[in-house]
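Co-fold these.
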Amino acid sequence: MPEEPASIWMRPERGARGPAPERSRAQIAVVAIDLAIAGGLAAVSTRQIAKALGTGPASLYRYVATRDDLIDLMHDTVTGEIDLSVPLTGDPVEDLLSLAVRTKDLYLRYPWLLDVPVERTRLGPRAADYLEHALRALQHVPMTGRQKLEAISLLNGLVTLFAHIEIQERRTPTARQAAQAAYQAQLAADGRHPLIAAAMADSTLDPPDDPRQSFERMTRRLLTGLGLPG
Amino acid sequence: MPEEPASIWMRPERGARGPAPERSRAQIAVVAIDLAIAGGLAAVSTRQIAKALGTGPASLYRYVATRDDLIDLMHDTVTGEIDLSVPLTGDPVEDLLSLAVRTKDLYLRYPWLLDVPVERTRLGPRAADYLEHALRALQHVPMTGRQKLEAISLLNGLVTLFAHIEIQERRTPTARQAAQAAYQAQLAADGRHPLIAAAMADSTLDPPDDPRQSFERMTRRLLTGLGLPG
DNA sequence: GAATACTGCGAACATCGATCGCAGTATTGG
DNA sequence: CCAATACTGCGATCGATGTTCGCAGTATTC
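Predicted complex below.
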């Protein structure tokens, strides 16, 4: 029962006998991320990556233990794009808010991130740097370690919620969405759901609120609600 | 280009010539939900359902257009378990909070609900009743239709976040989680992540906060932050 | 130059969602 | 009461998926 983590983070160039593996894990990650950008997480398949790399599907398993580990690798890779070098002001709420905004920008840049299940992701090196940074912002706040971790997890959850909203807002109403709206309107117009009908009628007229303002406000309230000084 | 919704909600007994389809969509939903309870959403497959029903996999497609529609059906079915008959008090915050608590209970009862992607779900009849109920709680609040819909969507998002936390908390630390914790501790112990190490050390000692209290507090803050009177 | 240790990968397996077309059957119309 | 009709159930099958096995090839080490 050694139950070795068998994670990909330790996998690379183990023996390092080979000739500097040209197609390293980083390359695999890049190709996979490109596929995800183009076609979403569902488009990230062993064979598509292999095809893009000019190899066979079986080759990837020398560098990646399983598909989930590959997704962890992708996740960790793009997490590295978050700039952690900005200095902390000492105000935990403002510091975490700033970090949350940068995180939300990352989600908007890589919408497929919203599809990776949160509870399954393992902590990669870049994500560890990220978490360390967030904990540094909370360093002098009187909370237990558990409370801090939960607060950060909750904050990240809020980020994904608003990222969802902003992405939804950003998409021009395609024919598909219009059809769906029409269907929902039809369902609402059966008389038994008057409030839905009214709200959706309004919804097409009202200008959307600026999601960023709302995000800032809600993030501040969440953080102060969790016990941060505010 | 009729682009008919082709949704399952209108699919059943169309011509109704057959002999009262014994294995109706409701039965399929029940079996699929049982499979999801036992093995998660990933265990819900055409063939497993067919096997449980004693038929072939192709038969299901007479009642269900696609797997996504099946999942919508499952979602809508369990949504029907939420009791909407409780009277509204007239206080929108308290009414929505009460609804949110019942919704969170549903998620705790059916954890696979957390795995169904939110942005893809279509509005079934039960979910429409649910939405109508939530809008009724907001009836006399001065918000636009769009704002109300977004508020409800955000509220449901918060429900899923806390459901995630509570489920995570509920699981006894299995060997798997222990191994993962050990791995993360090892990663934290390389010296470059002292705060992670400290927080996780605390985390194993500190008793967890009561998630329900925290949920109530955060929900109230979210709702008042969105402009509800509080 | 031989032993070694790793890499790349073709072939294959199990499983998945989904489609096609036909046999069977219940309902309808005459 | 029989034929036409319209639907149901489903075997066979397609394309694609994640993953494993084992072998040929190659670079490194002794």
